[in-house]
UniProtKB/TrEMBL annotation:
Pfam name, any one: Carb_kinase
Enzyme Commission number(s): 4.2.1.93
Name of the molecule in the record: ATP-dependent (S)-NAD(P)H-hydrate dehydratase
Binding site for ATP: 292-296, 311-320
Listed transmembrane segments: none
Keywords: ATP-binding, Lyase, NAD, NADP, Nucleotide-binding, Phosphoprotein
Example of a GO cellular component annotation carried by this entry: mitochondrion
Amino acid sequence: MCRTTSQQQNSMGAWHRGRMWASSPSFRRHLFLLRSLSPSPPPPSAAALLPHAVAGGSRCCSSSSLSSSSVRVHAMAGPPVYEADAEAVVRRITPPLDRARHKGQAGKIAVIGGCREYTGAPYFAAISALKVGADLSHVFCTRDAATVIKSYSPELIVHPILEESYSVSDGERESVSSRILTEVSKWMERFDCIVVGPGLGRDSFLLDCVSNIMRHARQANIPTVVDGDGLFLITNNLSLVEHNSLAILTPNVYEYKRLVQKALNCEVNEENASEQLTALCQKIGGITIMRKGKADLISDGKTVTQVSTFGSPRRCGGQGDILAGSVAVFASWAQHFLLSNEHPTEKSVNPMMLGCIAGSLLLRKAASHAFEKNRRSTVTTDIIEFLGKSSN
C-alpha cells in the first residue's frame, strides 16, 4: 500500500482548510453577491480567489480561474458575462416586514417627470415603486400634468411645480427656475432615491430646471435613476452624471446607441457588448448602466453581469417606467442594507448593481405572469398588478 507523501498531505490539508472556509457562515455572508455573478458555487480550489475579486473591485473571476463546469459563461469577446443569481439578490436586500418600523423606513421615492403630452410614464414609475414595497412615492411634474396624474391614483403625492417654456416669459426664466429648485430642495433630503425622466418631454426650459435638480440631488448624495427623456438630457450633457457612483442609467437599444455615439464616438458593437458597456461606464466615470434587451446587461465599469430570465414576448410601452421605479426602490434598499452595521463585511459591494439586478428580475417575472393571464392583450397596468406576487 502506497504511503502518502508530505507534499500530498500538505495539498490535502490545504484543500480541507479551503473547504471549511468556503462553507463557513462568515464566508457565505461576505460573498453573497458572488452568487449574483456566478450561477453555481465555485469549487474549493477557486474559493480563495473570490474575496480578492470582490474586495479589489475588479472584474469577477476570469474564465481561467474557474472551470467551465462551475460557471456558465456566455461566449463573447471581452470580459466574461455571468448570469446573475437575481433571486438571491432580491431575497438578500429586501427588508423584512416589521411591526416596529414606521412609515417611510421602507423607502421614499420621487419621480421627476410628467408634462402635457406624457402623464402615463411618471405614474407607471411612481406606482411601481409603491407596488414593489416603498412606503411613499412622489411625482414632481408640470401643472398641466398634475391633475391627470392625481386622478390615476390617490396613493401618489403629486407636486405641480415644474414649468415649460410656453408658460414662462424670457424675463421670468431665472426667477422661475430658482423657485422650482427651491421647492424641490425642500423635499430632496427626505428621499432615498429619485427617478429622472419618465414623461419629462424635451422642452428646453424644463430640461434646464431638471438639470439643476439633478445637480442638487448629487450634492445631497441621493441615488438617481435616469430613464426616458432623462437619458436624452444627460446624453447632451454628460457632466450631469460624470463620476457619480450613485447614478444609474437604464437605456433601451436606441438610447444606448446615442450614449455610445456621444461618449465613445463609435457605433454599438454587439460582438463585444460587455467590453463596450464596461468602456462606456468607465468613460463617463463611476456610474452604473443597465443596457436593456433580451438579456439586461449591467455594469459599473468594474463588473459585468446579466439577467436573462424570460419575461414576456409582448412588448407594450411603459415597461421601462416600471423598471425605473423598481430599480429605484431596490437600489435604496441595497444601500441601506450594505450600510447597516449588521453587515459590515459586505460594504464593498456596489448597491446600484444590486438594485439593477433585482429590478430586472422583478419586471421579467411580473411580465411573465401578466402574459400568462392576458396573452396578447397584456398592457403595462397588467404587469404592475403582478409586481407584488413576483417579489415573493
